């Protein structure tokens, strides 16, 4: 499997963050794909095609999600910049989200 997936977990409640708007952009800022996290806080395939080697941005609209849930948050947007080096592999970028911090890592 190739492409990109993501998962957002509300670290305060320990629940999936449903309905987070996410955009995949290339290094020029051009949007390549977009979607909303599902009931499990996931987007299983942000894009279905292989990602060519290069730099990409996965942008999470956390401000809208915080507003929708009545949460005062510090980060209105999370922009995770990452590098693709192998177009044959699948990339997974998870996020643990709270109002005043977030964590991400290269998932599997």
Automatic annotation (TrEMBL):
Catalytic activity: 5-hydroxyisourate + H2O = 5-hydroxy-2-oxo-4-ureido-2,5-dihydro-1H-imidazole-5-carboxylate + H(+)
Domain Transthyretin/hydroxyisourate hydrolase: 1-107
NADP recorded as keyword: no
A Pfam family that the UniProt record links to this protein: Transthyretin
InterPro entries named among the record's database cross-references: Hydroxyisourate_hydrolase, Thyroxine_BS, Transthyretin/HIU_hydrolase, Transthyretin/HIU_hydrolase_d, Transthyretin/HIU_hydrolase_sf, Transthyretin_CS
Keywords for the protein's UniProt record, in alphabetical order: Hydrolase, Purine metabolism
Domain of life from the UniProt record: Bacteria
E.C. code: 3.5.2.17
Gene Ontology MF term list: hydroxyisourate hydrolase activity
Keyword Aminoacyl-tRNA synthetase among record annotations: no
Signal peptide residue numbers: none
Assembly: Homotetramer.
Role according to the record: Catalyzes the hydrolysis of 5-hydroxyisourate (HIU) to 2-oxo-4-hydroxy-4-carboxy-5-ureidoimidazoline (OHCU).
Family to which this protein belongs: Belongs to the transthyretin family. 5-hydroxyisourate hydrolase subfamily.
Stated name of the protein: 5-hydroxyisourate hydrolase
Organism: Gordonia hankookensis
Organism lineage string: Bacteria, Bacillati, Actinomycetota, Actinomycetes, Mycobacteriales
Annotated gene: uraH
């Amino acid at each position: 499997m190739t492409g990109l997936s993501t998962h957002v977990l509300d670290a305060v409640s320990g629940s999936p963050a449903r309905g987070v708007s996410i955009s995949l952009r290339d290094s020029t800022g051009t949007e390549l794909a977009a979607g909303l996290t599902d009931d499990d806080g996931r987007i299983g395939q942000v894009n279905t095609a292989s990602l060519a080697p290069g730099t990409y941005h996965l942008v999470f609209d956390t401000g809208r999600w915080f507003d929708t849930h009545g949460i005062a948050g510090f980060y209105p947007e999370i922009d995770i910049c990452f590098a693709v080096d192998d177009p044959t592999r699948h990339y997974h970028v998870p996020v643990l989200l709270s109002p005043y911090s977030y964590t991400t890592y290269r998932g599997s």
